[in-house]
Target: Histidinol-phosphate aminotransferase
Amino acid sequence: MSRFWSPFVKDLVPYVPGEQPKLDNLVKLNTNENPFGPSPKVLEAIAAVTDASLRLYPAPNADSLKGTIAEYYSVQPAQVFVGNGSDEVLAHVFHGLFQHGKPLLFPDISYSFYPVYCGLYGIEPKTLPLADDFTIKIADYAQPNGGIIFPNPNAPTGIALTLAQIEQIVQASPDSVVVVDEAYVDFGADTAISLVDRYPNLLVTQSLSKSRSLAGLRVGLAVGHADLIEALERIKNSFNSYPLDRLALAGAEAAFRDQAYFDSTRNAVIQSRDEMAAKLEALGFEVLPSAANFLFVRHAQKDAAQLAQGLREQRVIVRHFAKPRIEQFLRITIGTPEQNAKLIDALQTLL
Model:
């Protein structure tokens, strides 16, 4: 702690991202990265703009990318916002759309960046406990609030709500913004973007990091009523007018245009996830129903922290959250078939 820090900085508790270890021959299943590379068309698009044009600023409004996303989801370009990863998009949402003086509602087991943003922007958090089966209790969200946010599928549980359940939450809070964080939606849930034209208080955020294999490119988006998008644009243009560089803009647009590659890789992940779930259950694990590219599991006889350490000693990395209610769970990213096989072999050795 430095004497030059402001009191505001001293009190911040920052987000801790998943470990990015620098080890050889590692099976890395801890940060929910896609096991398959990005579309070849994405790489071609990025290569095509690595020329003298990099001396110029990128398009500040990302109109071409917004148009592509709008076409993909059958909305208007004015309903689309893009930013430097969905975390930046969410930061602008917290800053510009949630009301101060009233609590922000989100699940007690959820994305751990939400309380960090509450601290950063002076928002009162109110966590609502998941049910015993780790599902979101819809009725609990029908209470006074300054906003609501939840992932769908939820993270780290992987459990998804139906569109009808999401609609119940949105309908119960017509005077505050409801944000559905869809980082993992393409692996088994239905996007709530189909609801945005009916509900002016609904905003849906997504990421290209997971299903489109572009975690290293940092592109996120939001879709909602044009008035909500305008608020995000005002925040963005008061902070950084050029959040996406030329490479990111070109690569993201190409990713949305290559539907065949997107479908083939996400279906491969879904198939591997289901196969992995069956193998883990055969080893005695309880596996929560997942609509994401990871599984959330616990073993009745084995301590999760000890399992995580034992796997690490065999050069397999998974995520362990030492937090109340989930300290006996491991979150396991779906890898390539070879990586998944190594995980199962390592667990068989430990068990």
About this structure: The chain has a mean pLDDT of 95. The CA atoms of residues 294 and 333 lie 4 Å apart. The longest strand covers residues 202-207. The two ends are 44 Å apart (CA to CA).
